[in-house]
Amino acid sequence: MKKSLVAVGVIVALGAVWTGASWYTGSKVKDELDRVILKTNDFFAVNVPEAGLNFKVENYEKGVFSSKADIVITSADSVTPDDSIIFKTNIDHGPFPLSQVAKFNLLPKLAATQIELANNATTKELFEATKGKPFVNGSAVIGYSKSIDTNLELIPVEYSKDDISLSFSGSKFDVSTTADLESVDASIITDNFVMGKADKSETMTVKGLKLVSNVKKSQYGFYTGTQEFVIADTDFNIPETKFSFKDFKIASDTSINGEDVKGNISYSIGDIKALEQNLGSGQVTVAIEKLDAKALGKFVEQYNKALAEGLATGDPSEATERLAMEMMSTTLPELMKSKPVFTVSPLYWKNEAGQSSVDLNVTFNKWNQDEITALAMSNKVDEAFKQLISTFDFNLKLNKPMVIESMTQAMILDQGVPVDAETKKEMKGMVTSEFAGVQQMLTSDMFSSPFEEMFMTDEERAEKAKQKKSPWMIDSENDLTMTIKFAGNDLTFNNDKYTLAEFLTKMKIMSGPEDELEYDAQPAPGAEIAPEIGNEPELAPQAETPAN
After folding, report:
1. Cβ(224)–Cβ(255) below 8 Å
2. CA Rg, the chain, in Å?
3. CA-to-CA distance for 70 and 88, rounded, in angstroms?
4. The three-state (H, E, C) secondary structure of 71-118, written as one string
5. Alpha-carbon distance values, 379 to 183, 199, 368, 373, 383 (Å)
6. What distance in Å separates the CA atoms of residue 531 and residue 163, rounded to the nearest whole number?
7. Helix 293-313 crosses helix 2-47 at what angle (to 10 degrees)?
8. Which residue in 158, 152, 215 sits closest to 188, CA to CA?
9. What's the pLDDT tens digit per position in 268-304?
10. Could you count the other beta carbons within 10 Å of the beta carbon of residue 196?
11. In terms of Cα–Cα distance, which of 92, 146, 94 is closest to 115?
12. So what's the pLDDT on residue 369?
């Protein structure tokens, strides 16, 4: 009996402690909720100001073990209070939220929130599609460190109305953030989405959509980390088009080393098909290293501020133009302080006939815009270029069969209907003839102009023909190639070597000494012309004054 009394006493004591702790943490929940909403608004205002998203808390009801609140979201397109999305929340107070205890998660938490989409004027049709079930539901757990772990589920939907049909396999949305959104890890995964006409005559199918973001806010105000967006398979089954592609991917990676930013972004896509033609696949990766982090942070801040002001006044284009001018005069030279390196590699496109590619690597110098402008204006374009760029490395390969195939496919797409193999063969013959003219221009002498030769004598043309040719591109069996390398003062274009001044002079970008023109000085209007020494004009004889 005594043991039972002791057990009951312990349970009562624990219950009293839990009740008191829940009441205390419940008093903190509203403040924390307001803080999260404020930080969320700041995040969207800085990163996607054009969306005009705004979050606020309404209808807050505090209890001992739990509280209730509505999270109301409006956007730039919202006109009336009905133009909003509302999430109903039920907040279980810590230190041991009941919803977490039920899942045997016994770590202390400030609160755990159950979330679901509310049925209102904005979401009415969505609830019709889900037969009254909330399309979005899930939970958010707030730790005492102010971290938030959110797990949302978008339920599967099968919907048909009038002539429209929609099938959605559902999606999972997971987000983990630290205090003040200093670190954000997020992912969205969707297996299948199909939308089109009810009779299936026209459909759009998206499979394997995934978005993953792992970023942290730097001391300079912008986020660094990795992001990836993938669509495994997309198909537009439209009678006039029948367009599809696979493995579409955008990936970025940004980091800070000391005071410099290093980052890259790549785009890739595979097996693009249209009108029964496989157009091919390709990739481009753009990277930059040693970009001044402080200057980049300043630019990001200026950009977001200008865009927000432009959206507020209804004229974002004017704000963007103003920012572009400021960037050219101030921000861009600041970004070049660390002499950044810019690369494009790889950049390629390939089809069943071959592959073409571009590789570019540029090392910039620290810029002084006034000096560069002064040098360019005084016919020292080579010195201006050397102040801009330290090294330049460029390689271009055009695969002739690949280009001809792409031009043939472009002709078919322009025609708008599929063609049989024989018709395509005829079209490829026409394109091959056209490409011969293009190839002649690409392999012509880059220092010659047909307009100059129009005014040459036959002897001058014959002498010109004897001179060594410097083609824009070198022709091999299957490829046209161009290679440019510059470092210090030496430039190699294909296989020919020049000083930078020699090359720019030959290209007529700057004038050589032999091109300097001398102009006779012209007197200013109204000025007297001084007579030349030794050539004084004779004075006319003066009439004698008659004697008185």
Report:
1. yes
2. 36
3. 5
4. EEEECCCCCCCCCCEEEEEEEEECCCCHHHHCCCCCCCCCEEEEEEEC
5. 51, 69, 17, 10, 9
6. 96
7. 80
8. 152
9. 999 999 988 999 999 999 999 999 898 888 888 877 7
10. 19
11. 92
12. 79
Q: Beta 111-117 vs 85-93: how paired, if at all?
A: antiparallel
Q: Tens digits of per-residue pLDDT, 354-396?
A: 999 999 999 999 888 788 888 888 889 999 999 999 999 999 9
> Model-level pTM greater than 0.70?
yes
Token output for 488: 């210090």
Q: What is the chain's mean pLDDT, rounded?
A: 81
Spatial distance between the Cα atoms of 278 and 292, rounded to a whole number of angstroms: 43
Six-digit token string for 538: 């004779």
What digits encode the pLDDT tens for the residues 420-470?
999 999 999 999 999 999 998 899 888 876 666 666 676 766 666 666 788
Instruction: Provide the pairing of β-strand 203-217 with 223-237.
Output: antiparallel
| Amino acid at position 200, single letter | K
Residue (of 491, 505, 508, 501) closest to 449 by Cα position: 508
pLDDT for the residue numbered 24:
42
Q: What is the mean pLDDT of residues 56-74?
A: 83
**Residue located via tokens 């590789």:** 359
CA–CA distances in Å: residue 269 to residues 69, 155, 246, 280, 282: 44, 29, 6, 9, 6
**Model confidence pLDDT, tens digit, residues 157-195:** 988 888 888 899 999 999 998 877 789 999 999 999 999
256: left (phi over 0), alpha (psi -120 to 50) or beta: beta
N-term to C-term CA, the chain:
167
Euclidean distance between CA atoms 447 and 508, whole angstroms: 9
Within 10 angstroms of residue 546's Cβ, the number of other Cβ atoms is 5
Tokens 């004889």 belong to 541
**What pLDDT is attached to residue 386?**
93
Tokens 């039972």, residue? 4
Q: What is the mean pLDDT of residues 221-248?
A: 90
Which amino acid appears at position 533 of this protein?
I
Residues listed for the chain: 548
pLDDT at 71 over 90: no
**Residue 157 to residue 155: CA distance in whole angstroms:** 6
Paired tokens of 141? 């757990």
Could you give the CA distance from residue 106 to residue 95 in angstroms, rounded to a whole number?
A: 9
Query: What whole-number distance in Å separates Cα of residue 111 and Cα of residue 94?
Result: 5
Cα–Cα dist 406/420, whole Å: 17
